Structures are given as C-alpha cells and as structure tokens.
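Sequence only, no structure available. Ideas?
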Amino acid sequence: MAVVVLFGSETGTAEEVADKIADVLSDHDAEVRDMLEYEVSDIDTDDFHVVVCSTYGDGELPTGAEPFFDALVEDAPDLAGLQFAVFGLGDRVYEDTFNRGGEILAEKLTELGGKQVGTHARHDSSSNVKPKSMAEEWARELIDLLP
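Reply:
I predicted one. Tokens follow.
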C-alpha cells in the first residue's frame, strides 16, 4: 500500500505541508501529488490518501483544488474502500468558514464511499504554530493508523 499526499493550494503553503507529511510517511512509499495534475481516475482505493487543502475567499476551495473537486462531482466514482485523512489550512479570523476547504473535500470523498480516519487537522494561520511543525506532529500520529 502506498500513501498519496494530495494538495490543493492557492499560495503554496499546502504544498509545503504535503512535502513535510510525505517526509514523515516516507517509510510508507509516500508520494506528493498536486490536485491540479491528479485525475480522479488515478485514485486507487488500495492506497491511503492524505488530503492537504487550504481555504480561499469566503470558505471556498483554493484554485488548485477546484478541478479535482469538480471531477469528483461530475464522475462520481465509487470510492468504497478508500481510506483518507485530511489536513486543512485556514484562518480562524474567518469564523464561519474556518478550514472549510478541507471539510468540503472530506464531505465529498465520504459521500462517494471513502472513510476518513484520524483527526481532521485544522491549522490556524493566525496562531503562532507553524503549519509544517503541526503537519509533522500530525503525520507522526497518522503512522499508527495506516493499514
């Protein structure tokens, strides 16, 4: 089983976080993939997926995640058997839409049959915690949940 770390970003922070998570999970054949270049048909439900997604605007998906999400909606693949975890990025200043990008993707993957495992990480850019530091700690906890 491989680990696919997918990221959807607006400014690049999600990519940096995805790289850090892949470093921690390197013993599990982790690879980082940009959602802009990842086809829904590439999803292998035997692989564990980690979704790293920022939130943009008024709680929307970042530009880097929109085509992937749209393809999930349009193609509606059967994702039964897929296990995934989510690391969201946001800013608590936007109370009602804080970390909504990751939640949108988690909801869609679950609706299509996937199962979210582990703690849904929600980084707050208004905090003093660096996103890569939080991601590293979170990924270490995730190791125990990998099949």
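The first strand starts at residue 3 and ends at 8.
Hope that gets you unstuck.
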